[in-house]
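Re-run with default settings, no changes from the original entry. Doing this only to confirm the output is reproducible before filing.
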Amino acid sequence: MSIELITAVSGALSPQSAAAHALSAETRAAGAASGADGASFSQFLTEAAESGRRALGEAETASLRGLSGDAPLHVVVGKVMEAERALQTAIALRDRFVASLQDISRMQI
């Protein structure tokens, strides 16, 4: 299940969101089967990834509108900064997840 979560988070931030939606549905189903806590955590990750993907898309749209002169500069800057925060959050989640997997692999059995 841990590999599925990494794939779901990284996939949801990519342009191929259809595959990400399929993975997130599988992740939610796997989380629901494991219990209430697992379902809420996988739902949180799915929503965070979707929010990040949406922020990146809005920033791209605002940037293109700004280049064509249809959007004011402060709107473009705000959207780009929001996308940067979403990306930083995704990177932090990934780093924490990798660190936790490394800690697990170092545990004595």
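Residues 99 and 105 are 10 Å apart (CA to CA). The two ends are 20 Å apart (CA to CA).
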